[in-house]
Amino acid sequence: MSLLNQIDKNNIPKHIAIIMDGNGRWAKKQGKERIWGHQAGVESVRKVVEAAAEAKIQFLTLYAFSTENWNRPKQEVDALMELLVNTIVAEVGILQKNNISLKAIGNLKSLPGNCHAELQKAIQETSANTGLSLVLALSYSSKWEITNAIKLIVNDILNNRLSKEDVNESTIDQYLCTHSIPDPELLIRTSGEYRISNFLLWQIAYTEFYFTKKLWPEFGKEDFYEAIIDFQHRERRFGLTSEQL
């Protein structure tokens, strides 16, 4: 029996974020090139997106490519960009069929022209869908995002569109890439690493973390459901005591 049946339908996290780690190590274990691991990782993305839709998750954010990833060998970066384009093109029909909208956060203008164009086309074509929102973090890092937000705020203050006295946490929220997305309640990281890797640092102030030793290509639907069940057994106090809840 699937773990989906054990999930409390009244305590579903609205937003789950995932650091998809371990593609390269998984490929190495198979005696293959790293890109082979990334290709296998696409299948895990399909499974987890389907699982999120079945569990009625509203937002699923996947850390697909960080700003630091641009420093990887050019051959791997080029292959990743080609894989990204091909995957986006291939999956649009499936997203439409399953009422899933595609969104993206990050320094999207830094993506290759064909990749950026296909991404924007897919976002537009799925924008009317009302089910799961699949958010891809591409050429993204939290330090870049926060730095960019500060620049935008300073620019608006200098141009008298904003007063410095009005700058508070809510104001900063509106200048981030995620301004239209709720903060994640649950963050999953695969591969046994215990770090955040510059991902959604502002947004995860009160997020629950779930770490698994499974490499991303090994992570499937039941693993996703298991993470949700683990989340549902936690007490989220937000600075209060148990008695105050």
Average pLDDT score: 94
Assign the CATH superfamily.
Decaprenyl diphosphate synthase-like
How many individual helices? 7
What are the low-pLDDT stretches, counting only 5+ consecutive residues below 50?
Answer: none
CATH class: Alpha Beta
Describe, in plain words, how this protein is organized in 3D.
There is one protein chain. With 245 residues, this protein is α/β, with parallel strands linked by helices. The chain has one domain (11-141, 183-234): Decaprenyl diphosphate synthase-like (Undecaprenyl pyrophosphate synthetase, 3-Layer(aba) Sandwich), CATH 3.40.1180. It has helices at residues 23-29, 34-54, 74-97, 113-125, 142-158, 169-175, 221-232, and strands at 15-19, 59-66, 101-105, 133-140, 186-189, 208-211. α1 (23-29) packs across α2 (34-54), α2 runs parallel beside α3 (74-97) and α2 (34-54) crosses α7. The longest helix is centred in the middle third of the chain and has 24 residues, at 74-97. It is globular.
List the helices and strands and how they pair.
Blueprint: E1 15-19, H1 23-29, H2 34-54, E2 59-66, H3 74-97, E3 101-105, H4 113-125, E4 133-140, H5 142-158, H6 169-175, E5 186-189, E6 208-211, H7 221-232
Parallel strand pairs: 1-2, 1-5, 2-4, 3-4, 5-6
